[in-house]
Every structure is written in structure tokens, then in C-alpha cells.
Amino acid sequence: MNLKKPCVLTVAALLLAVAFPASPGPAPALIGPGETPRLILLVVVDQMRYDYLPRFAHVFTGGFRRLMLDGAVFTNAHLDHYPTVTAVGHAAMLTGAPPSISGIIGNDWYDRTLKRNVTSIEDPGTRLLGAGDAPGCSPHRLRVSTVGDELKMAHPGSRVIGISHKDRAAILMAGRMADLALWWDGQSGAFVSSTWYAPKLPEWATAFNAGRPADAWLGREWRALGEGGALLGRMPDTPGPAYYNSLYNSAFGNELLVSLAEVALEGERLGTREATDILALSFSCNDAVGHHSGPHSAEVRDITLRTDLALDRLLATIDRRVGLSRTVVIVTADHGVAPVPEQMTAWRMPAGALSRADLERAATDALEEAFGPGAWLEGRAGSALYLDRALMAKRGLDPTVVERRAASGVEALAPVWRTYTRSQLLEGRVPPDPWSRRVLVSFHRERSGDVEVLLQPYWMSAPTGTTHGTAYSYDTHIPLILMGPGIRPGRFDRTVVLNDVAPTLATILGVETPSGSSGHVLVDILEPPAPPSPTGRDGGALSPVPRGGF
Ligand SMILES: [Zn+2]
């Protein structure tokens, strides 16, 4: 907590001390009162902690700097769900919905009907487009609307597109009615989609893939910006899965994504028609680099600085094509990350790793001791254990008692902080604290497990590197900046949640609030409507046209 103050002061100092960067071209005309923006640009950095903004503020020169100066900067935005992983974060972005209603409870979960784990977006009813014939992906497991869906229901001419390296990120941001989601295929180096959206890829995407843009970094060294240009990685010389994997684990992959976004802007003429369009973009390479190296590494510093530059390039393109004065830009993240346990130990902080196998053995041992031998554990996903209900029924056992026994077995392990059982969550019997709240609003009757296990702060089950997923601040505290017409710039220190973004955008666009939204409109950043003209024909009694084009 003590760390927070100096960080915040750094932001304040930057906001006050640094002049606005030079505009790259003539400024487009300002948006008129009552008009809605032409483009909503959502930029997500997959794995970015809030503290990266104040930590690197003095070295940002690009998009982050511009947003920190000109946007509404929330210094205390948190995720309000659990687990804090990619699919859940991206599902919350534009739905404002917690997992209990969105149905997206993890990157994957155990499906009791199929008797196997399913990912949040796998869909055998679709086919992949752009990289050979294979089962595709879709948002069919998402049970609520996004801002994009609401926009398209109100204005069928609107275009909604999601782009990311990760399928789940592109698909879940965009929503069920999206025109297109594109994600990266690490085997072929091409961007792909599925038949959920269209029978074939749009021509601009096919042409982009045909140019083999991913191969532009063959044999390249990844050297740190500044700081003596330390060597951080070297890309293989030949195209193929090993090279694409290296690209994905470097800062270069984000540049590739910006190139695709630029082609999409042009190909779809985004932001150039009467209706508002949405382009949602998620940079996944930051997550790959962060898992490997941790938040305090030279690699994470460098990819964050290069994301700042990539964002700058994207904003410049949008300024030329659409006009930033007609674009609402939102920059945020799907989750943070824990420091690497070895680093924490060196700092004399409590941290460590508990293997999944040890966790499951503790549950199984407790159940076998109490109820006899058996394959008690039917499934597992994330930090959840799924117990065999058929076995319980066969032995005439009360599921409430069996869940509690498994939970007690797990709680005996020192790294375990707390457990929640299915019965407990269904009845809402949880301690009144923020961690319980995050678990509670994320419990899905049909899809969630029987025992949720929370480890002590800084403990994890990752075998190497570091990870995220907990309900603690280092995973939940994310950047949140909104910039654009009708948004009041400044620093906002009150605590807000990611779920607030969707209803705020719905208000700006004048469309219905997404169906599962639990967020609150960020009213303090919305510019008030223009005052009524005192010389109006009816003597000033005319109401100003409200935002959202009523
Ligand atoms: Zn991750």
C-alpha cells in the first residue's frame, strides 16, 4: 500500500510537467454536440498491471503518454471477478457482466455433460477460416450481450470487429453479433477466423495473410530500447512454428497486430460512415513475455515501452483516417500478474508454488479417509475441483458434507488461504470482504466446480515463471483510461471496476445497457451536455440534444 503514493505522484508530475505531443497532422473538426463518436477503439493489453503506468511514465513517448495526458485516467480500477484470467477479463470488457451471468467462468472449465474440459470459445459446430480445415471457435458459450451487440441491434449498419493473437480475447470482446473476430494461428503465422462470422475471410484479411507479414522479423534480435540495448531475444531464421512461437514471446508480435488493425480500418472503412463502429484490439504478447519473465524484468519493461510506441502508431493512423476527435479510445487490461516467486523470496516477501498434484492429493486423501476409496475427483479447471456426484449418490452421501470434507483437506495445506464450497456459494454464505465478493459473483451454478481454492497472497501453482488468476490486487488492479469526445480528461482516484466500462459506453452511444452488466456509469468523466441557448426561439426553454443521439 505504501508503494501507491509515490507512483500516483509520478503520474501527477507527468500530467502537469509534460507538454502535449505535437499533432501528426491537421486536426479534424471537433465533434458536434449531441453527435455520437464514429469509432470506439478498445485496446487491451493482455497482462498489464496498473503500476506499469506510473513506473514507466517518465519514459513513455507514445500512446500511453498521450492517453495519460489527454484521457480520463483511473488510478484505482480493479477487476471484480475470479479467476483473473484472459477469457473472463475479455468477456467483462464490453459486457460489464460477471461470470455468474456471462457464463465465461475461466479460460476453460469441466463440462459435466461432455465429461471433459471445454474452452470458453471452442465450437465444433464451426470451422476454422484461413489455416486449413479444423474445428473453429465462437462466442456461443457467452450468454449476455456486448456493447457491440447492443450497437448492432440499434444500428444494423455498425461494424464490430475483434482482433487479437488469442482466439478467446478477440471473440469474447466482440460478442455474438460481431461482424468478425480474427486471431493468430501460431502454426501457420496467419490470422484466422471461423464460420460463425462468415463463410470466408474478408479479402483484406486474405491479402494480409498472403503477404506473410509475420515473417518480417526473421533472424531479428530483440534489443531493449535504451539501457545499452541489452539483448533480450533472437528470432529464428526460418519461418515455422518455432519462429512464430518466438515472435509471440517477443515485443514484435504487437507490431504485427497493429499492422492488421490498420488493414482492418481501411478494409472495413471503420469510423467513416454515419453509424458508430467498434474495433477491439488485444495485445497478447505482453502476457507471454510477462509469464516468462515477471513484472520486474527488463523484458516486461521493454515490451511495455514498445506497446506505447505501437499504440502511438495506431492512434496516428486513426487520427488520419477517422479523427481522434471522433473516436473514443479505451485502454485497459484483462488482468495483472504476480511477481516471480524467487524474486519475492529474495525480497523477504511470502511467496511460493503449490503443485496442482499436491492440492488434488490433499482433497482425495481427505475424501477417501472419510468416505472410503474411490475416484472422488471427476474434473478440475483453474483452482476449482469438480467432485463425482454420481459416486456421492451411489454411496448415499450428502453433497454438502462431501464438499466440506474435501475443502477441509485442502485447507490443511499451509499455502491455502481459503476455500469456498458449491453449497456455500449457492446460498451466499461468505465473509463480507472483497475477495469473497469476487468469488461469489463469478460462481456459475451449471459450469463452476464444487470447491474453489484460494492460495495465500503471492502463492501460485505455476511450475516456472509467474502467473495471474488470483483475487488479489496484483492481479486485479489494471490500467483504465478513456479518451475522446465528451470525456473529461483528468485523474480519477476513486475505486472503479472494469464492469463500469460497458454501461458507460452504452450511455455515450445511446444504446441499451448490455444485458448482464453489473457496472455503474462513470458519470464523473462524462462532459455535461451543452447548456441551452439563451437566444433559442422559445426563449431558452429548448433542451440540449442529449448525448447518444436521442
Ligand atoms: Zn496469462
Topology:
Blueprint (H helix, E strand, L loop, with lengths): L3 H14 L21 E7 L6 H5 L6 H8 L1 E7 L7 H10 L3 H4 L5 E4 L4 E4 L2 E8 L5 E3 L9 H8 L5 E5 L2 H8 L5 E6 L4 E5 L8 H8 L10 E3 L7 E4 L6 H8 L3 H16 L9 E7 L1 H9 L4 H24 L5 E7 L7 H6 L5 E2 L2 H16 L5 E5 L2 E4 L1 H6 L4 H13 L4 E6 H5 L7 H7 L10 E5 L3 E2 L12 H4 E7 L6 E3 L3 E2 L3 H9 L41
Parallel strand pairs: 1-12, 1-13, 2-21, 2-22, 7-8, 7-12, 14-19
Antiparallel strand pairs: 2-20, 3-4, 5-6, 5-9, 8-9, 10-11, 13-20, 15-16, 16-18, 17-18
The structure holds zinc ion.
Structure description:
- The protein has 550 residues and is α/β, with parallel strands linked by helices.
- The protein has 2 domains: 4-12 and 36-340 and 470-525, Alkaline Phosphatase, subunit A (3-Layer(aba) Sandwich), CATH 3.40.720.10; 352-460, 2-Layer Sandwich (Gyrase A, domain 2).
- Strands 1, 2, 5, 6, 7, 8, 9, 12, 13, 20, 21 and 22 form a 12-stranded mixed β-sheet that branches. Strands 15-16-18-17 form a 4-stranded antiparallel β-sheet.
- β10 (221-223) and β11 (231-234) form a beta hairpin.
- Mean pLDDT is 91; it is low at 1-33 and 535-550.
- The structure holds zinc ion.
- Residues 47, 86, 287, 291, 468 line the site of zinc ion.
